[in-house]
Amino acid sequence: MKRIFLTLLLPLGLFAQQTHNAIHFDGTDDYITTSGGNITSGNARTVEAWVRTDANCIPGAGGGKQQVVVDMGAFGTGTRYTLCLLWSNSVRIEVGGGGLSGSKAINDSLWHHIAAVYDPSSSTAKHRIYIDGSLEASGNLTTSVNTSSGGVQIGRRVDGVNPFEGDIDEVRIWSAALSDATIAAHANQEICGNPTTLKAYYTFNQGNANGSNTSNTTLADQAGTNTGTLTNFSLSGSSSNWTVGRDMNPNYYDTVSMSVCNGMWSPDSTMYWDSTAVYRHTFTDMNGCDSVISYDLMVNEVDTSISVTASTPPTISSNAQGAMYQWVNCSDSSAVAGATQSFFVPTSNGDYAVIVTANGCSIWSQCVSVQGIGIEELTRALLYPNPTSGILQVPSNWRGERVEVSNLAGQSILSTTVEDKLDLSQAPAGVYVIRCGAQYARIIKE
Fold first, then answer.
1. How distant is the alpha carbon of residue 144 from its chain centre?
2. Phi and psi of 397, rounded to 5°?
3. What is the pTM of this model?
4. What is the pLDDT of residues 20-34, one digit of tens each?
């Protein structure tokens, strides 16, 4: 069947489906080490992440423990910079020997954006903590920041303790102290392009969420070459594995209202949209960020099904009611003169279809192959038994000749040379046309 599709040309770069994944850490021994991306000495920095957990982060009688999200440097006074969850089940920044804590609990099994900023140029608030884009706490510490060199660790502290239990997504490390407005503006969005101060960026958009990921053991750095290595993850199932991440707001969003006939393929050709609904499709734009098109689709349905009689010549009928009809030759798409009724009786062999016009649409039916017009039909006595359960005796003049078997839609199901019998035992029950040269017969397979 021929279909007419509407193609949209959109300035969105590659038509690749983007996934929003994260990684689940089991709280026992899962962690990720990176080849770089840390900020050393007392330089300005911002560390961001999206986290989701229900773990008790408060050490003590309740059995809780510190939940480390991102750490860099080495264990010692002032030599590490640790973004974690601790007191009050809230965000804390530690520098080794000192720290600053928030008070809003976020271990509620919901996604939260957290960020820590170190601004050495400030005299009153060198350290700032943010939750969901809003300033949570700020101040100075008595311990100076002097972060050691080395790679970043995600999901545990640099001395190998306090592993994170829950999901982590969208880790970003900046070599600048971002402002309140900047953090609020891009907390809910992916970072597009390549900002000069973005030193490491992990979107976690890899792997097969909650599936088998034995080959997905590295974490890509979108800002550079600071690749992460997954350690101790089971990489299968819903725990200790790649999982569904925080659905970030797209960099570009638009809605397109469309009216189509019988449906259309999604832009990446993976789905056929055949009912009236709103469909959302996510692309990856030229900067590697999400761009979303929402299709408000009105599908005008046309019945293109047909019926074919077993007579010779057959009568081909459109099943559409109250439509306009034009029968055509499939070989060259030419219209059959005067054939504008709902049924058509061919006068010559060929392949035929009907163009049905209804609801503002003109759609082709499938093509039907018509054979046997102008050739001799055998009597039932020469091709028997008819009906048959599978084995047919053929006329003597057919022996050694090529025999073609087709269904009533003209589709060939068998082409073979016969001697005295024709085996149709593998064919489904139905009516078939059997041809040999200028002779044919219709048989019933039971």
1. 47
2. -75, -5
3. 0.61
4. 899 999 999 999 999
The partner residues of 113 in beta bridges, in order of sequence, read 50
d(C-alpha 247, C-alpha 20), whole Å = 6
Fold of 22-244: Jelly Rolls (2.60.120)
Q: Is 7 exposed, middle or buried (0-12, 13-18, 19+ CB in 10 A)?
A: exposed
123's CB contacts (< 8 A; 6+ apart) are: none
SS3 content of the chain, % helix, strand, coil (to 5): 5, 40, 55
The C-alpha atoms of residue 22 and residue 2 are separated, in whole angstroms, by 42
Domain boundaries, the chain: 1-20+249-301, 22-244, 306-370, 376-445
CA distance 245 to 322: 50
* 3-state DSSP assignment of residue 67: strand
Rounded-to-integer distance, Cα 445 and Cα 342, Å: 30
Q: Residue 240: what residue type? A: S
Q: What DSSP designation does 381 have?
A: G
What's the CATH number for 376-445?
2.60.40
Evaluate whether 166 touches 53 at the Cβ level (below 8 Å): yes
CB 20, CB 205: distance < 8 Å: yes
Give the residue among 185, 172, 178 at the shortest CA–CA distance from 222: 172
**Nearby residues of 133 by Cβ (< 8 Å), 6 or more positions away:** 113, 183, 184, 187, 188
Q: What is the pLDDT of residues 57-102, one digit of tens each?
A: 999 878 899 999 999 999 999 999 999 999 999 999 999 999 999 9
